[in-house]
Amino acid sequence: MAMAALTASSSSSSAITLLNKPFFPNRSYFFSSNSHSPLLRFSASSSSVRPRFPSAAISSVAPESDLNKNGTSKIEIEETQVFACPVCYEPLMRKGPSGINLQAIYRSGFKCGRCNKTYSSKDEYLDLTVTADLEDYDEVKPITTELFRSPLVSFLYERGWRQNFKRSGFPGPDEEFRMAEEYFKEAEGGVLVDVSCGSGLFSRKFAKSGKYSGVIALDYSENMLRQCKEFIKNDDTFDNSTNIAVVRADVSRLPFPSGSVDAVHAGAALHCWPSPTNAIAEICRVLRSGGVFVGTTFLRYSPSTPWIIRPFQSRILQSYNYLMQDEIKDVCTSCGLTDYEDYIQDSFIMFTARKP
Length: 356
Ligand SMILES: C[S@@+](CC[C@H](N)C(=O)[O-])C[C@H]1O[C@@H](n2cnc3c(N)ncnc32)[C@H](O)[C@@H]1O
Fold this sequence. Notes:
By secondary structure, the protein is of the alpha/beta class. The chain has two domains: 1-122, no CATH class; 143-354, Rossmann fold, CATH 3.40.50.150. The chain has helices at residues 102-106, 143-146, 151-161, 173-183, 201-209, 222-233, 276-286, 325-334; strands at 4-5, 16-19, 75-84, 91-95, 109-111, 118-119, 126-127, 191-195, 214-219, 244-248, 261-266, 287-298, 338-345, 348-354. 42% of the residues are buried. It has an eight-stranded mixed sheet, sandwiched between helices. The protein is 21% helix and 22% strand. The longest helix is centred in the middle third of the chain and has 12 residues, at 222-233. S-adenosylmethionine is lined by residues 141, 145, 148, 162, 196-198, 201-202, 219-221, 224, 250-251, 267-269, 272-274.
C-alpha cells in the first residue's frame, strides 16, 4: 500500500508519516511532543472529504522506512483501517506506533476528525464506547450486561462459571474453538473481532493460532477486559508483538468502519445482549462482503424439554434473551446475512451466517 510521507516542522525531532492514503488535504495535524504518553493530543479542522476504506491489511511490524536515522520509531498519524468512531463511524485517526498489539495500541491516541472526540487506553483497554470521555455519566445497562461488569463475576468467569455451561450442552472451550475455526477458514489472514469476549477465553485462542492479522477482544465489561489483560500478561506464549487488542465497546455500537471486518465471533453472548436484533444488524454492518459470523448461545429450551414445561420458559419470564433456532435464523436473515447453518446439542446452539 502506498504511503504518503510528510515531514512536519515541529520542535520534536521525530519525523511524521501519514500512512494509508487518502490524506485529508484540508486538515491540519498538531502533535504533542510526548510520543510515549497514551493520552496524545490531536487537532484537526473539519473536512468534507470522505475517506475511502482500504481492505483491512495490518502489519504489526514497523517497516524499516518508518524508523528514524537513530533507529527510534517515527511518530505516525494514520487513518486507522480498523477502528472507527462509535458516534459517527468515521475511521479514527491514530497517532502512535502502528499495529494491532497491546503495546502499540497502549501508546497510541485515537481521534475522530468529524466529532473531535479522542479515545485512548487510560486503563487496561482501549475504550471505544460513546461514554469513553464522560466524567459524570455512567450508563447503566440491563442486568444481563451489568452482571458481567462486576469484579467478582469477571474473576470467577474462567474459574468455574464458564465450565458450568457444559451441563446445558456446551461442548467446552477447546471443542467450541475447533468448531468455530472450521467456519472461519475463509477469513484466515484477516481481522477477527471476538465480540463479548468476556475475559478473552476465545480471543486468546484465536490470537495464539496465528491465523489472523489481528484479533480484537471486545467487551462492554471493564472488569472482564482487565481480567483478559491479566491472563495475557501471565501467559508466556504472548509477547508485545502478538496481534491482539483489548477494546471496550458496546455490541450495538461497534467501533469499526462498515464492511471492514473479516470475521466476528460471539461465544455464549447473544442471550446477554440487550437487543439481539440491534447487535446482529451491527455485526452485519461491520462485516465485509464474504465475512463470517459465528455465535453460540443457550436456546430457550432444548429439543428434549417436555412440551408441558415449554410455556413456562417464555421470554417474558426470563431476564436473558434466550431465543430458539428459528428466531436466530430469522434475525440473521432479516439483518441481511445469508448461508445460515447451525449445530444443536441440548440447549447449546452454534450458528454461522455470512455477509453476502
Ligand atoms: C457469558 S459471557 C461470554 C464470554 C465469552 N465470549 C465466552 O464464550 O465464554 C457474555 C459477555 O457478554 C458481554 N456483554 C453483555 N452485554 C454487552 C454489550 N451490550 N456489549 C458488549 N458485550 C456485552 C458481557 O460483558 C460478558 O462478558
